[in-house]
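TEACHING EXERCISE
Course module: macromolecular assemblies
Task: Read the component lines below, then compare them to the predicted structure of the full complex.
Student: A.B.
Group: 4
Components provided:
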Amino acid sequence: DGGITQSPKYLFRKEGQNVTLSCEQNLNHDAMYWYRQDPGQGLRLIYYSQIVNDFQKGDIAEGYSVSREKKESFPLTVTSAQKNPTAFYLCASSGDRYNEKLFFGSGTQLSVL
Amino acid sequence: AQSVTQLDSHVSVSEGTPVLLRCNYSSSYSPSLFWYVQHPNKGLQLLLKYTSAATLVKGINGFEAEFKKSETSFHLTKPSAHMSDAAEYFCVVRLYSSASKIIFGSGTRLSIRP
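Instructor-supplied answer key:
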C-alpha cells in the first residue's frame, strides 16, 4: 500500500543533542512537508520541499534543518538550537496539482529528557 | 503576507443545531482551500476542498463550505450537528506564489452539547 512512514513513533532528546526524524513516502509525490503540532494549537510549517535538492523555510524553521536528496525521503533534524523541541511532528506529502490534498504520516512525538 | 485565520478557537453548539466555523485567508494569488478534521487521538482527515469549479463545496458527513472571493472567506457549515462532530477543525490554504506552500489555520475546537 502507498503511504508515508514516519519513524520513530517516540523520541527522546537530551540537552545539546541533535536528533533526526525520518519520513519516507512511496506515493511518488514531489512535494513534502514538515509540521509541528503543540497541544491546543494548529499545525505550524517548519520546512517544505517541492523537488529533490530544493527546500524552503516555513514559518518556524529556526533550530531545524532538512535535506531532500531523494524524492522519497525528507528527514528533519531537530538541532540543539531548538530550545523548545517537545511537540508532535507530522510529515506530509502531496501531488503538485493545486487542489491535491495532503497525505500524512502517523507522526513522531519528541520529548526532552 | 499570506495567511489563514480561523476566527474562533472554540465553538460550542447543541446537538441538532447548525454549525458555523469561520475561516478567512489572505493571498496575493487565487489559493486552493481545504478543511481538515482531527478527532481526539486520531489523524487528520480531509473534509472538503475548493477546486474553483463551484463556490459551494460539499464534503463528507454533511459539511459544506462556501468560497467568497470578495470577503476572502471559506466558512464551514453543517445544518444539524451530531455528537460525533466533536473534533478539531483546520482551515488550510495552498499558496502558489512560493513553491506550493501549504499553511494551516490555528484550528477551531467544536464541542457538541447533548
